[in-house]
Amino acid sequence: MLTIAEKVKLLDMLMEGGSYAAVGRHYGINESSVRSIKKEEKNIRTTAAISFNKDAKRVATVRNKTAVRMESALALWINDCRKKNITLDTNVICTKARTLYQTFADSDREEEEDADLGPSSSAVHTVPSAFNASKGWFEKFKKRFGLKNVSLHGEIASADTAAAEAFVNNTFKAIIEEGGYKPEQVFNMDETGLFWKQMPSRTSIMQEEAKAPGFKAQKDRLTLVMCGNAAGFMIKPGLIYKSKNPRALKNKNKDDLPVYWMHNAKAWMTKALHLDWFKHCFIPEVTCYLRGKGLDFKVLLLVDNAGGHADDLAYDGVQSQFLPPNTTSLIQPMDQGIIRAFKALFTRYTLQHLVEAMDSDQDFSSTNYWRGYTIASCLQNIQRAIQEMKTETLNACWKNLWPEAVQNPTGGSLDEIHHSAVDTAVNLAKQLGGDGFSDMTPDDITALFDPDAPPLTDADLAEMIKPLSDDEIEEEEEDKSVDKDEEDGLTLGRLATMLRMSTELQRAAQEWDPLMSRSLQFSNIIDGGMSVYKDLLAQKKKERQQRPITMFFFPKNTAAPL
Fold first, then answer.
1. H or E stretch at 462
2. What is the spatial distance between Cα 96 and Cα 98, in angstroms, rounded to a whole number?
3. What is the pTM of this model?
4. What is the pLDDT of residues 161-220, one digit of tens each?
5. How far apart are CA 409 and CA 403, in angstroms?
6. I need a surface site. Which of 20, 188, 247, 438 has the fewest CB within 10 A?
7. H or E element: which one contains 301?
8. In this structure, are residues 240 and 268 in contact, taking their beta carbons and an 8 Å threshold?
């Protein structure tokens, strides 16, 4: 039986024009089964939108809608608390479940009351049944969402120092010795949520957005998958977003992005996406890296035991190992400051984007600019932040787990990177000026990504588990109507326009800058940067000249013979 995630992909193939027979052959099922899945499309996509567990195989049509929403939000809340080192136990989780259920039940009741049923309608309001968060429900919830290590008896799940020491001194040491692994061959992977369009709440940008109706951009979340080895090398990050084809990336080659692009409706990690990342990002990136180092493909991958991580990662030459429960804050390299420093750098570059826009536009409005700040801009800032992470700094983060692999334990402190990025961000905010910017403090910046920050509120969770809006669904589908020239992006005409604009820019610098040495330096930089587009233009012209002459003997609406 296909999982919900596989059924969604099957439906996507049908939507893209695949025949029932071809899609059936692809998934190894008969055509009648494909048609049956197509008939259930609405229920399948609804389940995929509200369910945290994409490995589920049955459509959630018989379960209480409020309970399904509550469990999805609860799983997200648990993951958020774990990342922020907030201790949880069974009683705390069950209490949160009852609170969320009541919140969603009230919301569902209000929506039904607002619906235009009419006085003669026979429709009946569906009143959610009482929810007690029993022990039986809790056990089933853990199985549904793969929460293998939530406390069962009320004990506090604080960092387990003894388990961490035992893993480092016994388990990990034995794995390294038996496998003969070198630092270049040992990797750690972790993911983190990123509210990529969020600023401190006191700023004018956030105050204006709070007044506006509809979706709140500061709640727009993505999941970033970060993975690096003990030698200080980081592979291309994975990114999970709510949309497969956001408008800002229209005509962009997904394989050429600075991230490995993945998507699901809630932008969070699932076992299916974890396996996707492993096969199509981790394996190719590590293969290329080790080949360049002249090393054998022999790899150890360390991951924590989060519910969204697959436990069946299998590939010849790769050994995957789960870290013990409640030890990640002590020994997981990615949790030793790498993610925190990255978020500080990302925030700094986001503010720098704002300042650069202000400097280049006399009519600059921070609110208008922020509306146009897209996921494409976000990807640029992600790339810049990761490129600023130094090899020796990343290597030093392995000192708690593998001290023998660390070259310079005191060099390249992540705390220094963090503080420097925060201080620079504060200075950039003061350059912007205005409410919330001119008096911004380091604490305001740190509060955006501090692991000690409060957990997500009920309102945050409700916003994050909403299904895609009609506009977002339309955005997903609009690429299918573009013509061939639009899909290509860089046509001959557009390349020629770019080169002409670069020439005009050089001419303006030479005419207006009183220092000839500076304008010449600028001109040389432009020439160097435009060389890739000049080469591409020459290549396209050559391809055009090599077309068979017979193609010009036919009208445009008549195909040339093959």
1. helix 458-464
2. 5
3. 0.66
4. 888 999 999 999 999 999 999 999 999 999 998 888 877 666 665 555 555 444 455 567
5. 8
6. 438
7. strand 299-303
8. yes
